[in-house]
Amino acid sequence: MSKTLFPSIQPQTSEAEKAMPLFKEVKWDFINNIPIYKGGSPMIVSGKDAVVVWAWKALHTPRFRHEIYTWDYGNEVESLIGQPFTEELKQSEAARYFEECLLVCPYISSVSDVTAAFSEGNLKIQASLKTIYGEVEVNV
I need a surface site. Which of 28, 88, 94, 133 has the fewest CB within 10 A? Predict the structure, then answer.
């Protein structure tokens, strides 16, 4: 008999319980920034395509602004506006914010080849994402 009041019990989990469910998201029109409907219902994508939609939405959502999202969701790129940083520092910080934003998703394991460029008041970022479904490219 154990002499401790609270015995250490490790729950048994099977491989099926450890696997994440198939990631699903509403199909998105990236040019017009609207969901895509078919027959009055939103179209659903899964796997890599769903992760790309999630990433695109997260990168377009300012962090800490909307109460509907957790404080982990969104990005902080807007904080670079008006800062007296050099272009190189702004690009580096934008890439860091980009990476932090995306790694919140458990379906994304790594972000690589991040390039950030400011032109005509716009920030353009490209990167490769390693997901549980394979690699995808993101251009925002």
Answer: 88
